[in-house]
Amino acid sequence: MPPYQAINQAAGLIIPEIILLATVCVMFLAGPFLVSETGKAPAGLRHRWGILSLLALGAAMFAWTKAPILEAGAGPFRPDEFVWFVRGVSLVCGMLLTLVLWDQIDDGHAAEAHACLLAILAGVNFVALSNDLVGIFLGLELVSIPTYILLFLARRDWMTHEATIKYFLLSIFSSAFVLYGLSWVFGIAGTTNLTAITEKISAASATTNLGMFRLAMVLIIGGLSFRLTAVPFHFYAPDVFQGVTPSSAAMLSFVPKVVGFTALLRLLPVCFGEANFTDWMPVGAVRVVLMVLAILTMFVGNLLALRQTSLMRLLAYSSIAHAGYMLVGLTVGNSSAGTSGVAALLFYLAMYGIMTIGLFALISAAGTFTRPLRSLADLSGLSKSQPAIALMMAVCLIGLSGLPPTGGFLAKLNLFLAAWSEGTTDGRILAITLAVNAVIAATYYLRLISVMYFEQSTVVLETSRQPAAWIAGCLCAIATLALFLMPQPLWNAAVHALSHS
Amino acid sequence: MIALLFISLLIPAATALLLMLFRTSLNQSSARWVACCGSIAALLFSVLLLVQYRVQVVDPFGSGVMPVASSVDPASAIQPRVEYRQPWLKTGERMQLEMYFGLDGISVTMIALTTLLTVCSVLISWEAIQDRASEFYAAVLILETGLIGVFCAFDLVLFYVFFEMTLIPLFFMIAIWGGPERKWAAIKFFLYTLAGSLVTLSGLIYVVVHTSHEGLTNPTSLPALSAWLATHPLPESMQMTLFLAVAAGFLIKVPVFPFHTWLPLAHVEAPTAGSVLLAGVLLKLGSYGFLRICLPLFPAACLELGLPIIGLLSVIGIIYGSLCALAQRDIKKLVAYSSVAHLGFCMLGLFALNTEGITGSVLQMINHGLSTGALFIIVGMIYERYHTRMMDDLGGLASKLPMIACSMVFISMSSIGLPGLNGFIGEFLSLAGMFKANPLYGVLGTTGVVLGAWYLLTAVQRVFFGTLKEPHHAGHDAVEITDMNPREFLALAPLIVMCLWIGVRPAGLIAIIEPDIKAVAGLFENQDDSPTEAFVQNTTNILNHNAQISIP
Fold first, then answer.
1. How many whole angstroms separate alpha carbon A319 and alpha carbon A302?
2. What is the domain extent for residue B417?
3. Count of A–B CB contacts within 8 Å?
4. Which of chain A's residues have a Cβ under 8 Å away from the Cβ of B186?
5. Do B213 and A414 touch (CB under 8 A)?
6. Above pLDDT 90, what percent of chain A?
7. Which of A420, B164, B170, B259 could be B252's S-S partner, Cβ–Cβ 3.0 to 4.6 Å?
8. How far apart are alpha carbons B395 and B405 in whole angstroms?
9. Is residue B133 part of a domain?
């Protein structure tokens, strides 16, 4: 096959990402020309960029519905069912994140901020799409680098500076971890193509001791744990969440987790010599590592969240704890008995995205661009000053705490069922830890609700109209309730993602 | 009939939604009218449901009991007569959650009790709730939806969902509209019951996963699970562990001594409507859970552990609760502790594990709902007038408030268990069942009746009789203290009528619940043990006969 033909063929597989990246180029190129040299932009410019961003996402979604679903081959991309799921999650959440970002950025920097967000989403998809170690790493960097810019663009005070620098340094550090791990894989297998690596390992595993893969896997898990905010790689999260705007925090609480789990689900089965994760479950040392990570993450996240007074720090710890819940699903893996842990993980991931983005959207809608809600005290009396926002926030919080009637309940139930039905002692320990943590977590979510509803407001906060964030929050709250009543389509999607032959 | 059920389930939900949506445009008076109409509509439909159930199921054309719903295995101890099933979430070949709503005799009566007490709660909050009225009534109606949902859910997860859902509105009711210690009370109530019910959930999931591994295709459906376990019983040691796990949440909910510590606090801090629904229906979720889940699923463990553990704790609860009630100065706390004692009877009857005992227990659930609901309403009326509930500050109110005093005496009699009123039937059957199972507990339980008369009559005597004593600040805000007004009368009258009616003619009620109770009790008794059946028949006949003689 001539090279241009191969490129043509490969390009046909990534049309949604091409649409996103083309829009990114347009925004980066045209953006500076609409802003004067002093940095002044015509008022309302951000609406145009927001609409363009939504249009691009809509077009990408259309392309997503038409995108072919193919087997993994020797090529650079493998657009299988899993990619279909990740694309769906990233595009839907991308729309919500765009709405959250809408009024959280000044007119002068709107173009760059929206472009960064679209680039991040494209990066998420590339991590899932890549059939190559290098491709996966590039995807991860396509997420990281625009994130640094996005965090920094939204607001420029010393807290944001500190947060961005912290995130930047630790992110680079974790990328180095991952890269080192990937290079071990390359060193052992002698190729970077995932399909080829799988074949080599499954051919060799009968006779060879693949001990070196353990080192590679531990490095990869460690590096990606930074993105998942799994304990003990979580230290940056509270500081960064506290420093950045709510829109950036919304992005940080969700997108890195999607990327991290996508990369783990792509890389770990390969290291076990499985072409995909249909029948994959972690065994041996990797399982122990994942289990310890899951238990630590749940406990540390929830226990530290209990004593927080800063709203953003509290939510950062809550986001850490949720990573722990999802790690339970990953640890259980796709055991044949009972409910699939990976499907439960994917269901939880989508559900968590809806609830957390909704919560941050409402937090940004309740404050102003210059003075967002910062402490728990800022929430007090919200049920009187902004009853609709308080109610929707309560729905999202109840969802995050895993109580009915929200989709969050079913998401936790599935993880619990998956862990329990696996039938091993490990699985039961995980399930019980999950249940205990659900109670601990209920305490602080309840505290947030009680502050909103039962305490008199002490600070008088200005309010501003942020219809876009309000709409995003409203959609998320409705979806949280609707997915309780009709969870089957989402579950089917998660199972479909695993259905790869 | 299932349509009627959905109507009664959806009316409160829709009304609550309406109240929340038009929160800003509804003032206090319009909000309460909307809530009142909604709750009355729900009551009407649920009464219609009860009547239709009675006519079609219990006595279809005078020819005996209608067969159970077609999909239910006859071996099951849980036999909904009417059902509606809709797939909800299927996460594996043998893991299928369902929207499984159904009705049997017990659920249909409990639903009617819920809707009746909700109407009373709305009426009694009429003046008491000034602040954020529409949100308050929305919370009441959401609570009603959750409660109705629990009683008609026949899928384990769905049951659990509604069970948990009731926590949220009550949490808000206590925490926003409660007394001075409301925040702590609400959080203690919430976390205590949540922690318990998560242990319950773990136990339930263990059963579900275990049976699905063994080959049951729809392990969360209660009738199917019960039928399966009847033919493939779990090993006894496993049953005992699971029984204790599942019981944890229900023991806290009932509450059985020593898990009752959240109850007095929650009751004292809750607004009157909250107390009425909490005592009247919410606590019954615990005993209902035992009846619906523990008894059919873990029969061996119930035989093994029921009497020595739960029976013992119930007896302690009866005596301890009564003595605590005797020591209280706050009337509301007194009533709260009396709930601990009365639910002790309920649990005692349940774990007698025979037809008489379980019948008595179910009757006790309904009776306690009626009489304790009424007691809380009366306490609320007094508090609204005098802004105190301390018995030391009050005395001789009968001369000032004759109607309230009169109903208080009546309800106290019903609560004590005077023959001819509802309390008697429930306590009598519960204790009769217990005497058959274990005479010692029966005797100890009976002391509770005496103690009950002691504390309630003392309270009545101190508050309503003797020389008139009113708190100083009573006339201070220039509101004249008047007797019961028509609205309050409407809130209380239905409860009094029901107390009398059940006391005089329990046979009608027993006929509705009896087949379902026999199905459960059949797990523990020999099926052709006709003396038992004859005993109930005789007892009810005697009761009716006596009542008809003594009352007119």
1. 9
2. 272-552
3. 94
4. 450
5. no
6. 49
7. B259
8. 11
9. no
Residue B126 lies in a domain: no
pLDDT at B551: 37
Q: What is the DSSP string of B73-116?
A: -TT-S---SEEEEEEEEEEETTEEEEEEEEE-HHHHHHHHHHHH
User: In chain B, how many domains are there?
Assistant: 1
Whole-number Å distance between alpha carbons of B95 and A384:
43
pLDDT tens for each residue of A332-385: 888 766 778 899 999 999 999 999 999 999 999 988 877 888 888 888 888 888
Percent of chain A scoring above 70 in pLDDT = 96
What SS3 class is residue B304? helix
Q: Please give the share of chain B, as a percent, with pLDDT higher than 70.
A: 91
Q: What is the Cα–Cα distance from B125 to B363, expressed in whole angstroms?
A: 27
> Which range (A158-162, A496-500, B152-156) has the least confidence?
A496-500
Residues facing residue B99 across a β-bridge? B86
| Residue in chain B lying closest to A410 (CA) | B89
Inform me whether the pLDDT recorded for A422 exceeds 90: no
Give A220-279 pLDDT, tens digit per residue.
Answer: 999 999 999 998 888 899 999 998 989 999 999 999 999 999 999 988 888 877 776 777
Cβ atoms of A240 and A150 within 8 Å: the answer is no
Q: Which of B22, B88, B91 to mutate to test the interface with A (most CBs of A within 10 A)?
A: B91
Cis peptide preceding A405, ω within 30 of 0: yes
DSSP string, B437-477: H-HHHHHHHHHHHHHHHHHHHHHHHHHHSSS-B--GGGGTT
Q: Which residues of B touch A416 (CB under 8 A)?
A: 201, 205
Sign of the CA dihedral running A140, A143, A149, A150: negative
Cis, bond preceding B255 (omega within 30 deg of 0): yes
Quick one: which of B142, B162, B198, B115 has its CA closest to B292? B162
Rounded to 5 degrees, φ, ψ at A26 are -60, -45
- Give strand pairing partners of B100: B85
- What pLDDT is stored for residue B150 in this prediction? 92
Which of A342, A397, A421 to mutate to test binding with chain B, by most B CBs within 10 Å of its CB? A421
What distance in Å separates residue A36's CA from the closest CA in chain B?
45
* Residue among B143, B142, B162 nearest B152 (CA): B162
C-alpha closest to that of A237 among A253, A216, A258:
A253
Give domain status of residue B418, yes or no: yes
Inspect the interface and report whether the beta carbons of B171 and A431 lie closer than 8 Å.
no
For residue B403, being part of any structural domain is answered with: yes
Please say whether the beta carbons of A20 and A122 come within 8 A: yes
Rounded CA-CA distance B414/B318 in Å is 17
Beta bridge partners of B103: B82
Q: Would you list the DSSP string of A223-244?
A: HHHHHHT-TTS-THHHHHHHHS
Q: Is B190–A387 a contact, with Cβ atoms under 8 angstroms apart?
A: no
Interface of B with A (CB under 8 A): 20, 23-24, 87-92, 95, 157, 160-162, 164-165, 167-168, 171-172, 175-176, 182-183, 186-187, 190-191, 194-195, 198-199, 201-202, 205-206, 208-209, 212-213
Quote the minimal CA–CA distance from B315 to chain A in Å.
Answer: 31
- Token pair 């069922």 in the structure block, residue: A417
Tell me the ipTM for this assembly. 0.82
- Rounded Cα distance between A452 and B1, Å, is 42
Q: Residue type at A170? A: L
Q: Are A167 and A147 in contact (CB under 8 A)?
A: yes
Assess contact for A290 and A330: CB atoms under 8 A: yes
Question: Cβ–Cβ of B91/A432 closer than 8 Å?
Answer: no
The tokens describing B100, both together, are 């499984």
Residue B95 pairs in a beta bridge with B92
| pTM of the predicted structure, to 2 decimals | 0.87
